[in-house]
Amino acid sequence: MPLIILVADDDLGTRLSVSDYLEMSGYSVITAENGQQALSMIETYHPHLLVTDINMPRIDGYELVRKVRQKPPLRLLPVVFLTELNSTNQRIK
Predict the structure, then answer these.
(1) What 8-state DSSP symbol labels residue 3?
(2) Full residue range of the structural domain in which residue 75 is found
(3) Is 42 in contact with 74 (CB distance < 8 Å)?
(4) CA–CA separation, 70 vs 82, rounded Å?
(5) Domains in the chain: how many in total?
(6) Which of 22, 42, 52, 70 could disulfide-link to 27, CB 3.0 to 4.6 Å?
(7) What are the φ and ψ backbone dihedral angles of 49, each rounded to 5 degrees?
């Protein structure tokens, strides 16, 4: 059974590019277009990895990860952030 990866990004092109690449690499991919939808999908599908944009509507990537970390069964879910932000302060956050 392939590992499940959730890709959360409000940009359709990015979502499709990342999910297509991961699927071609043998992973099972589910997608969400905002943080709120991603949180719901995490609780439903229990993915093995979260790949998320930082700037999204409703719940941004930072808040999404904070909410995930508050749930003990999900506390150790690996996360990869995607971002166009390039300031040092944003990277430290």
Answers:
(1) P
(2) 4-92
(3) yes
(4) 21
(5) 1
(6) 22
(7) -155, 145
CATH number of the domain encompassing residue 79:
3.40.50.2300
Going from the C-alpha of 73 to that of each of 66, 67, 84, 86, the distances in angstroms are: 14, 12, 30, 32
With tokens 């990015």, the residue in question is 14
The most distant pair of C-alpha atoms in the chain lies apart, rounded to whole Å, by: 40
pLDDT > 70: what percent of the chain?
Answer: 90
Distance CA 7, CA 23 (A): 11
Dist. CA 25–CA 47, nearest whole Å: 16
Q: What is the number of other CB atoms lying within 10 angstroms of the CB of residue 38? A: 30
pLDDT tens-digit readout, 58-70: 899 999 999 999 9
Tokens at 62, concatenated: 């930072």
- How much is the pLDDT for 33? 96
Provide mean pLDDT across the span 78-92: 71
CB atoms within 10 A of CB 91: 10
Residue with tokens 């993915």: 47
